[in-house]
Design a protein that fits this description.
This protein is mainly beta and about 350 residues long. Helices cover about 5% and strands about 65% of the residues.
Length: about 350
Amino acid sequence: MFSFSKPGISLLLLLITCTTALAQQDSLLLDSNTTIVGEIKSMKRGVLTIETNYSDSDFNIEWLETKKIYTQSVFLASLVDGSRIVGTLRSNENNSITITNREGVDEREVLISEIVYLQPLNEGFWSRLDAAIDFGISFTKANNLKQFTMGTNLKYTEDKWSALINANMLRSTQDNAEDIRREDAAFIFNYFLPKDWYLTPRVSILSNTEQLLDLRTVVSLGVGKYIVNNNNMYWGVLTGLSYNNEQFSSDAESRSSIEGILGTELNMFDAKDLSIITALTAYPSLSEGGRWRVDWNFDLKYDLPLDFYVKTGITLNYDNQPVADASDSDYFWKLAFGWEW
């Protein structure tokens, strides 16, 4: 039978308290005066994620419902004016937050609503990675129609830059008709500048049967600006130059062109479990007289429990000077079920 003296019990309690304090270094005070203790994983799109010892799954909390935050972690913080600061956070009595840079030589006091992104920098590679994958499938007895779609999205964020890879695929077969296929993918690199400006080199590819495109490769360099960037939405514009190389599944010769870029993107994510993303990009040709192309996409996503989601969206590609015997446009609509982490 084990026995403890009073000093031993006191020491044991002290060790437990210290261990708990070290393991649970972050705490939040909400508008409802509820306190949540745990480990802050991130805050993005107006939602803060915190991991606790008393729940099997992470808590997702509306950022604007946070009254105070207590933490010793170092964060990458992005503000509404485009500033990106690496440092520690300290809540003040007036419900503002003071951000002290990593060197401890500069402080900035901001309102909670002015912070649009938080990422703890003591986390590893996986904490900075966002990923999603979704699938859609349909069968119809008429003409033995079968259709399969798949989409994936990977995004990694660092202090001064982010990298995004996305890809989509469609396969459709039916009796007495040609198979339909479509693939598109893009690699997008963003280097963040002051005042919500950013540089963005990109590479995208597209292949579809409707426009007889065996492969379209577009390499571009653009400069963008977020006009609105807050906890409800962001809206940005983009301009730049691109090089377009096209190879066709018909007998048509390959062609290349230099194009300008004029684009805009809107992301609305403060509608409970609903989010909307739409982007429109025009490519006026600088080397082919009178030619211009347009890419447009619209996605509507509804979040489900356990990080699952349902998603519907449409993508349109238009070319006013398509190759001979090809359609001037191709669109792709999908309804899919997916998971993100």
